[in-house]
Amino acid sequence: MANSNRRAIMTLYSDPSCPLCHRTRIALHEKNITANIEDLIDDHWPEDVAAANPYGNSPTLVDKNLVLFNANIIIDYFDERFVQPPLMPVDPAKRAQVRQMLYRIDKDWYSLWNALMGLEKGKMAQARKSIQEDLTVLAPLFAQSAFFMNEDFSILDCALAPLLWRLPMLNIKLPAKASAVEIYAKRIFNRASFQASLSDIERDMR
């Protein structure tokens, strides 16, 4: 993805193949935030950014003297600083439900990422099966509203879209009874914010 040529105070350091970075880029474009997006290839970090991030992971956001280095924290910051369009419901109970589902998405699916990428010996097949079965069971939820568990685009859609985009690359094929997931995914993929979020590497995944 081409970086912005405009000088901006805010810079997002992003691995162009990382689904968590992708999640953050979707939120950035959904809110139409002006920022520089710097691709991090092979963990080549600017020295000052590396020094400010104790975990050495991306995405990392630098905004003046503020450094944030967790995708969900970065998105929360976007949502609180740039209030429109909101990525969280206004109602406290609904916000709690969204946060709980986001926790489940990260714990149940994104925690399997190393296994899915073959970095944990002998665990790839089970990881694929787990995601396929979970998405199939949850398929009715994808059909209940325009977006996942919400009538408006939310942080849950930011989190789900990178995973669903990568299903073919991960050799995960959903059964016919999970067609609601495929319909939902196509709707999200057609959004301008999603298309703008894609790196060149991600476009080649499909």
Number of strands: 4
- Helix % is 40-55%
Strand content: 5-15%
What is the global morphology? globular
Instruction: List low-pLDDT spans.
Output: 1-7
What is the alpha-carbon Rg in Å? 17 Å
Oligomer: single chain
Number of helices: 10
CATH class type of the largest domain: Mainly Alpha
Element order, helices and strands?
EHEHEEHHHHHHHH
SS-based structural class?
Answer: alpha+beta
Overall pLDDT: 91
CATH topology of the largest domain: Glutathione S-transferase Yfyf (Class Pi), Chain A, domain 2
Q: Note the gap between the termini.
A: 16 Å
> Order of strands side by side in the largest beta sheet?
2-1-3-4
In the residues, how many domains can be counted? 2
Describe it for me?
Mean pLDDT is about 90; it is low at about 1-5. The chain starts with 9 loop residues before the first strand and ends with a helix. It has 10 helices and 4 strands. Helix 7 (about 155-165) crosses helix 8 (about 180-190). The radius of gyration is 17 Å and the shape is globular. It folds into 2 domains: about 10-85 and about 195-205, 3-Layer(aba) Sandwich (Glutaredoxin), CATH 3.40.30.10; about 90-190, Glutathione S-transferase Yfyf (Class Pi), Chain A, domain 2 (Up-down Bundle). It has a 4-stranded mixed sheet with strand order 2-1-3-4. The longest helix is centred in the middle third of the chain and has 20 residues, at about 125-145. It is an alpha+beta fold.
